[in-house]
Design a protein that fits this description.
mainly alpha
Amino acid sequence: MKKITSSLYDILGISSATICLAHCLIFPLFTVLPLGVSHNPIIDLLFASIGLFAILKIIKKSGLLVSSILVVSMMLIWISILAELFFEIHLDLIYFGGIGMIIGHLINYKLHRKQNH
């Protein structure tokens, strides 16, 4: 049976963070239009959970730089989501966290590919 490599987790993390960031940037436009769409923080929790799963698998084998970027980015995302769930406050930290997640996963993916070639 083939073992899942950390590059697969990086691809999962990059995809999840990119979709999450696109959701966070585009969704406010949909709320302006009279489509009857309202924001649901559960969607944010779904993306954050996927991202958390990916970084927990990656930080065990990555360096200090990548681990730090991913952990800080995930903390920013979770703080923003929890503030919205419990206090109904939208924090812009989620955007910085999403960008940080993409950057951290890209760096780790490139380092992983460089080591294997």
